[in-house]
């Protein structure tokens, strides 16, 4: 992990007129000292919707948190789900600065933050598509900056390019935080995203039918996110009969409206950790990617997330040995992984995911128009450390 946290879809972030800055949320990030995280088993969950709060007859697999039990009242209207009681780590608290700059000015500045080489920068509400439906999330994505003169950019590598920054309006602190995030990112694949979700009665997703974010898995190894106190995240334990492999066939939209979703209530000072596609691939389905979705609530909501990912150039091979040299036990669906002798090129998965999520963005159009996708098959893009001469 980097000194700063968050990056799963690239860094996303909000432009908003209210004084509730997702940038301030990042104050959760680095621990103030070396106090080890604590971890404890957890009490039974309860089944809730936003009107009735009834104990579940058979609590799902549970663990216990150190922090106080969260209130179920934050669950977005219209959803029925078990309230999760997930394993949590307690980090030392750091002060959260509630002063905020003018978010309207920030929004204007962000709208200019688009680059046609990288997928970094501002993503408007309604621009992202999951399983064919517009997401209402508004995102600012931070990826590692590659200047136009960089050899990879000049050679036309997909997803490599400048990380555009908002000019003015954000304030020194916010901009400094973004810069810090960018400095901590090891490569184009690691990302920080800041998301804003509008309240459900004020959606602004270009008038399309939409939702917070549809059911999906994240692409990389793991995602660490901090949410504010509003609430909107749901996760789902894959069922026994499921064999999704998002790097082969889209897992977006899967079981979106089924039973079995678990609501992750906000708990102050606690990060959420979600496993991604490559963790599933590496561990041969032992640690499956976590399907999740986001509902819009009665208030706008902010999330900041760090996406920890393999190198863009990495070709992953599933593990054959576990801890202490134990052979990895085949898991259900393992055959879908074992039949890929060439391994899994992360840059290709990453590019596929962005092209799918942002079909109309200028970055996707340019990539296609210049036929740069074919570069993903070349040895230069599949070998860590190989950098074209600039
Ligand atoms: O809103 C959240 O808590 C999660 C957002 C999310 O799933 C994503 O950015 O990929
Ligand atoms: Fe996600």
UniProtKB/TrEMBL annotation:
| UniProt biased composition (Low complexity) | 1-18
Keywords of the record: Iron, Metal-binding, Oxidoreductase
| One term of GO molecular function | oxidoreductase activity
Keyword Ribosomal protein present in the record's keywords: the answer is no
| Stored Gene3D superfamilies | B-lactam Antibiotic, Isopenicillin N Synthase, Chain (2.60.120.330)
The answer to whether the entry has keyword Iron is yes
- InterPro entries linked: IPNS-like_FE2OG_OXY, IPNS-like_sf, Iron_ascorbate_oxido_reductase, Oxoglu/Fe-dep_dioxygenase_dom
Can you give the residue ranges of the Fe2OG dioxygenase domain? 188-310
Where is region (Disordered) located? 1-81
Pfam families on file = 2OG-FeII_Oxy (PF03171)
Q: Name the PANTHER family for this protein.
A: 2-OXOGLUTARATE (2OG) AND FE(II)-DEPENDENT OXYGENASE SUPERFAMILY PROTEIN-RELATED
Similarity comment: Belongs to the iron/ascorbate-dependent oxidoreductase family.
Name the record gives this protein: Fe2OG dioxygenase domain-containing protein
Q: Which organism is it from?
A: Staphylotrichum tortipilum
Taxonomy of the source species: Eukaryota, Fungi, Dikarya, Ascomycota, Pezizomycotina
